[in-house]
Specification:
The chain is an alpha/beta fold and 270 residues long. It contains twelve helices and ten strands. The protein binds D-glutamic acid. D-glutamic acid (DGL) binds next to helix 3.
Length: 270
């Protein structure tokens, strides 16, 4: 039994394109509807209640597009509003559970680092998910609020002195704690992987987008709900197109974004 409905992916903005990329790479035949709440980004420095309200709006929007499953690509939403997703009438994937499972699988010394937005780290979501799988694990979590603007500026080069200094300052507690595994717990951070690698050395980096794409593939295999004859069509909806939209979208998508596939929408009246 195939299912030609699209996979719905949402994020606070354009960062979730890094997750969408991983899903499209692993499941090229699946159609994807991407929703980025670019009019209200960032979520990561907001309070829990407002993030939850925004998450519900975003999920409603995707449901209107008749998607077969929904992915909260946003680490912040996944951390503070996953219950809103699990209450939906379609299967829901968030960015914490699968990354935690992968981190617990690969760590040798049971010392796991987590980096994310202030809201993500403040929620303790990764700590909780890791403790449920490995109660002996020690988790060191650090908020890295400057990483998002740095990535959106396109400053991701491992050789860039400023990037290097910012990364070194943020991840210092993780290095000092002796972590052998580090979860990149925010949409933008996989783009900094080379810069992070240059600072942390041999620590294993976990990209939640890769882990979630694999989990979606497993789910589609188990249920048979693949898009058997799909062409991998992608549609993008955003709530604002700022001046830097094209630049930011292309950085996060890893290729120039075709603006003709992007529609501007209003969330009012959902
Ligand atoms: N997408 C967000 C996340 O992964 C980062 C940007 C924001 O703060 O909204 O947490």
């Amino acid at each position: 039994m195939a299912d030609s409905r699209a996979i719905g992916v949402f994020d606070s903005g354009l960062g979730g394109l890094t997750v969408m990329r991983e899903i499209a790479h692993r499941l090229p035949k699946e159609d994807i509807v991407y929703f980025g709440d670019t009019g209200r980004v960032p979520y990561g420095n907001r309070g829990k209640e407002i993030i939850r309200k925004y998450a519900v709006d975003d999920e409603k929007f995707l449901l209107q597009h008749n998607v077969k499953l929904i992915v909260a690509a946003c680490g912040t939403v996944s951390s503070v509003a996953a219950d809103t997703g699990y209450a939906l009438p379609v299967p829901f994937f968030e960015m914490i559970t699968h990354a935690a499972r992968e981190a617990v699988r690969v760590t040798r010394n049971h010392k796991i680092g987590v980096i994310g937005t202030a809201a993500t780290v403040g929620s303790g979501s990764h700590k909780q998910a890791i403790a449920a799988l490995d109660p002996t694990a020690q988790v060191t979590a650090c908020a890295c609020p400057m990483f998002v603007p740095i990535v959106e500026e396109g400053w991701v080069d491992a050789g860039d002195e400023l990037v290097n200094a910012v990364v070194a300052r943020y991840v210092d507690p993780i290095i000092r704690a002796g972590c052998d595994t580090l979860i990149l717990g925010c949409t933008h951070y996989p783009l900094l992987r080379h810069a992070i690698r240059a600072v942390v050395g041999e620590i294993t980096l976990i990209d939640p987008g890769v882990a979630v794409a694999a989990a979606i593939q497993d789910y589609l295999s188990a249920t048979g709900l693949f898009n058997a004859d799909g062409g991998g069509q992608q549609r993008f909806f955003v709530t604002d197109k700022t001046q830097s939209f094209q630049k930011t979208a292309s950085i996060l998508l890893g290729k120039p974004m075709d603006e003709t596939c992007v529609e501007l929408v209003e969330l009012e009246g959902l």
